[in-house]
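### Sample
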Amino acid sequence: MNIYDFKAKTIDGREISLDKYKDKVVIIVNTASKCGFTPQYEDLQKLYDKYRDRGVEILGFPSNQFAGQEPGSDEDINNFCTLNYGVDFQMFSKLEVRGPNAHPLFEYLTGQAPFKGFDMTHSLGKKLKGLLEEKFSETLSGDSIKWNFTKFLIDRNGNVAGRYEPTTSPLDMEGEIEKLL
């Protein structure tokens, strides 16, 4: 099993199979428009601009599961991403990334790449951990997605090559992306 076994609905309502991304290096990220990590859209777009011609694809999956930070419709999300960050990588319809209604893709991803903790040297690392401990302690158990902008790096064979928590900048993934290219 790999990511090619899954389908998802694009932000404009088309269901596609992820086998469309065969032979590509893929970054899958759960996103939100009203999060402290939302500026990561800018760096994700920079990665896409730099590497798309070499076979990198970025797939954004909005979710409203973390403090209601993605309340808008798919159209609202698409407009926000395009107008504020110039996003032209593939965005998908809003979905759940953890819990009983999690999309199977995210169940697979978290099963392949366990949670290893947040980067406490990041300016938001301690704040995020404290917030989760205080208000969302149920999110801390297991390997599920902990917050918005958790990133999964996928190799050209559709296998998970790494998991990067929100406290890891997308640009800090460049070395691993280069290795997979």
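The domain at 3-11+23-180 is CATH 3.40.30.10 (Glutaredoxin). This sample (Glutathione peroxidase) is used throughout the tutorial notebook.
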